[in-house]
Design goal:
Length: 247
């Protein structure tokens, strides 16, 4: 069984869109958004996957979501059928933190690859959870987004040395750091040095859920990326669709 996020009560968040972030930016893809997260970022733009009524961990919007309206449990076969109803040859598995549901995802991806052998599977992760072995064997790409101090998560939860070492060695893994202020740059540079992350595999992305904030932060962040030899990614879907579910 898989626990998915919803677009509207009772409707699973499975949709086609352009990948908006990172190395596959601009590619037509099918998205599936899983519910639940092991972290709690203050600026999380998908707090409806974890900040359910009674969860008082700090979030800038101070919103609480009704679990019954925002979570949906389906079996792997049902999810596979909904995904295969779309014709794109790329799948992005996101959340929440999708790797919390590793065994069920392994089943899902096995069914999908059997039905559509060329399907490219990329997984968005906060980088704290080791992928289930069978899922790892089938995954084509990881977009790993370790959370910095400004996320509000303690480093002991968000930056796990053993995990970061493993991702840095995996050629399928691309790092994507969310940046809110120039003060975040030195923290990224320290992580890059400590774990030997190649600049070619290191993206910085402005934090923001509106075009105006992204534009303003992009100006100085692009300069920093150039100075550090890092890659820059915008958030294409925010410019196209705003901060909406199912896009
Ligand atoms: N279009 C689009 N691209 C995305 N890339 C990563 C996303 C995410 O929420 O993880 C995302 C998303 O929500 N929409
Ligand atoms: S790790 Fe991702 S899904 Fe989890 S709280 Fe942070 S931004 Fe949200
Ligand atoms: Mg998103």
């Amino acid at each position: 069984m898989l626990t998915l996020a919803t677009t509207n009560p009772g409707e699973p968040e499975i949709f086609a869109s352009l990948q908006g972030e990172g190395p596959s930016s601009g590619r037509p893809s099918i998205f599936v958004r899983l519910s639940r997260c092991n972290l709690a970022c203050r600026w999380c733009d998908t707090a409806y996957t974890w900040r359910f009524t009674g969860d008082n961990r700090p979030h800038r919007d101070e919103v609480a979501f009704e679990r019954s309206d925002n979570q949906l449990t389906l079996d792997e076969g049902e999810v596979a059928a909904l995904i295969l109803a779309h014709n794109e040859d790329r799948l992005v598995i996101t959340g929440g933190e999708p790797l919390l549901q590793g065994p069920a995802l392994a089943k899902l991806v096995a069914q999908l690859k059997q039905a559509r052998p060329g399907l490219h599977v990329e997984i968005e992760t906060n980088g704290t959870v080791a992928p289930h072995a069978a899922l790892d064997a089938a995954a084509d790409q990881y977009n790993v987004s370790p959370k910095l101090a400004h996320s509000g998560n303690p480093a002991e939860l968000a930056l796990l040395p053993e995990r970061l070492e493993a991702w840095a060695k995996d050629p399928r893994a691309w790092f994507k750091f969310v940046v809110a202020s120039p003060a975040d740059i030195s923290e990224i540079a320290d992580l890059q040095n400590r774990y030997g992350i190649a600049g070619d595999h290191l993206f910085v992305m402005p934090e923001g859920t509106s075009s105006s904030v992204l534009r303003e932060r992009s100006r100085w962040l692009a300069e920093e990326a150039l100075a550090q030899g890092w890659r820059f990614t915008d958030r294409l879907h925010i410019h196209l669709y705003g901060d909406t579910r199912g896009t």
